[in-house]
Structures are given as structure tokens and as C-alpha cells.
Amino acid sequence: MPVLTHQQLRTLLEHHLVRVNTPQEIARQVADNLVEASLKGHDSHGVTLLPRYISAILAGDLQPAAQLRLIRDAGPLLSFHGGRGFGQVLGRQAMSAGIERARQSGVALVSLADSHHLGRIGAWAEQVAAAGLVSIHFANVAAPSAVLPFEGRHPRLGTNPFCVGVPVSGRAPVILDFATSAIAGNKARIAWNEGRAIPPGCAVDAQGNPTTDPRWLMEEPRGALLAFGGHKGAGLSLICSLLGAALTGGETESHQIPPRQGIINNMLSIIFDPLRLGAGENYAREVIAQLDWMQHDQQGHDVLLPGEPEARAWQQRLENGIYVDEVSWKQFEALEL
Fold first, then answer.
1. How far is the C-alpha of 294 from the C-alpha of 191, rounded, in Å?
2. CA dist., res. 263 & res. 271, Å (int)
3. What DSSP character marks residue 105?
4. d(Cα 223, Cα 218) in Å, to the nearest integer?
């Protein structure tokens, strides 16, 4: 499989996006976001999404020049509509507005409806944490339902991500970012492309039998993903849909959305200044104390904190390059035809 530097991939992605009438600056931001996701080890949300994005533009599901539109401003509450523009641009703009409002009011509640794929939600938590603020994000995937409810027989939920970011004084922030399905849907796509199995306990086939074959998530007749942690993950997925879509003006899974080329997301973000809560300036010391207590046990074994696997992947891939699976690379080559 091809291995490319991050600079090569940024140039390649930007080139193809501009070819389908994406404004240059937007193309640059999208390319940077996708390459960053791949650098951090999340190939499912990285450069291999480009052919899907191109198809979405050609199908009219993704509007490459769409701008963020403010539809409601009520003090600490901000509501935006994305017009199915690039989530990589809309998400950053919405978070910037939320950061500014949280600095003024101590807290901001930001809704974003009808955005094209927001990518790795952790990127928005990182943006907020870099401003010294805490954030909580609830997102849904407005697509055909792919996840079974707890004890359900038919998919009724999306892979709906949940994310929290906490700044840490003098250190990298804690970024907890995960799909509420046992694995993200795009991770099944990467496994399918690479001809490998998905982990046990993540999916069922079309008859409801447990499977590790990603084929059941990629071709008809389709099976379904399972929520992580049984009823807990399924419940959190439902909350992500209610808060991320039903309250923001986006589509929930109840719309029985047909298959489409685009990936539409809706998201509700809570942003606040930790200095204005009860711990005040002591919060920074308490956060570090808890992280150290959890990470270093009495036997000297170090526990990985949320965000640390991404930091390790970042360093490795900066040095060694980013691999692109053969299926995705052939899709890249086909874009030139």
C-alpha cells in the first residue's frame, strides 16, 4: 500500500478538492483536517474519505462553498445552520464563535444543524481546549440507521459520536472522543478495504447473528453495528440524537433517511470556562492530581490517558509517513480519469 508524507497528502487532497470547485482556502482547511486525522491514527476519519467527499459534491449532497449561517443568538445560546457545507470549516467557525461567547458569559451552548461530515469530533474539543475551555459535544449521523438499540432487532440509531475535552495546565488536553457504536462505521470500511476482520462483539449479520466480517456492514443485505456497552452505549447514542439533532433542527434517524453520498451531521456543543466554577484556579491542580493518580499505579505500570494514543500515532506517522490502503488508493487514482 502507498505510504505518503503528510505534505504530499495535503497537496493531493487540496488539488482534487479545487478540481470540483471547492474554494482554495476551504480546500486547504479540509485537507489539513483530514491529514491531521490520519496523522493521529484515525484513518477512518482521514484522507481516505476524500473520494466519498468528491462523490458527495458531484451528487449535490455537499455544497463546497456553503457558509455558516447564524439563525438564532440568545446570549450564551448560539444556533447555526451549515447548509451542507464542509464540516471541517463549519465546525471550526462554530467553535470559534462559542469560544468567544464563553469568554464573555462563562458558558456557551452552540448548535450546528445540517453540516456535511464534521470529521473527528475530537478536533473541535482540541480547538476549545487550546483556548483554555472545557467542551462537551453530542453529534448524530443523519443517515440510514446502522446501529441496533439494546435488545432491538432492527437498526434505529446512528454511530452518533460523544466527545469531551478538558484542558490541562502545561500538558496536552484530555480528549475523550468515541462513536457510541462499538466501532465507528468508517473503521468497518477500512477493515473491509484491507481484507481483515472487525473485533468480536461489534456487529451482527442480516439474520442477527454475531459476525466479525465487515462485509455485512458494507454490502446488501446489511447487518448492523452494536452499541458499545449494551444498554449504556445505546442510551448515549439516543441522547446524542436527541440533543445533537432533535434540539438543533437537524434530522434524527426517525426520518428513515435513504442512502446518499453525503455524510450529514448535527451537533450540540457545551463550552464553558472552568475558572468560573467552584474550584476556581485550583481546578488545574486537581485535574493534574487526578490524572497522575489514575495513570501511575503502585506497580509502576502506566495507563494510557484519552488522547495519548493519538499523540503517539502523530509522532510515528510524522516520521514514517501515512499509509493509504490499496482500495482507497485506486479510488484516488480514479479521480484523475
1. 32
2. 25
3. H
4. 9
| pTM tops 0.85, yes or no | yes
Q: Which SS3 state, helix, strand or coil, does residue 57 take?
A: helix
C-alpha grid cell, residue 13: 487532497
Do you know the residue count of the chain?
337
Asked whether 315 and 39 are in contact (CB, 8 A), the reply is: no
The residues that bridge with 214 in the sheet, in sequence order, are none
**Of 129, 97, 96, 80, nearest in space to 266 by CA:** 80
**What is the residue-level pLDDT of the chain in tens, covering all 337 positions?**
699 999 999 999 999 999 999 999 999 999 999 999 999 999 989 999 999 999 999 999 999 999 999 999 999 999 999 999 999 999 999 999 999 999 999 999 999 999 999 999 999 999 999 999 999 999 999 999 999 999 999 999 999 999 999 999 999 999 999 999 999 988 999 999 999 999 999 999 999 999 999 999 999 999 999 999 999 999 999 999 999 999 999 999 999 999 999 999 999 999 999 999 999 889 999 999 999 998 887 666 778 999 999 999 999 999 999 999 999 999 999 997 6
Amino acid at 247: L
Cell numbers standing for residue 103:
469568554
DSSP annotation of 103 reads H
In 169-317, beta strands by DSSP E: 171-179, 203-204, 210-211, 224-225, 264-272
Beta strand spans in the chain (E): 3-4, 69-74, 77-81, 107-116, 134-142, 161-168, 171-179, 203-204, 210-211, 224-225, 264-272, 322-323
Report the C-alpha dihedral over residues 192, 260, 185, 230, rounded to 10 degrees: -130
CA dist., res. 7 & res. 22, Å (int): 19
Q: In this structure, how many other beta carbons lie within 10 angstroms of the beta carbon of residue 232?
A: 12
Pairing outcome for strands 134-142 and 107-116: unpaired
CB atoms within 10 A of CB 140: 31
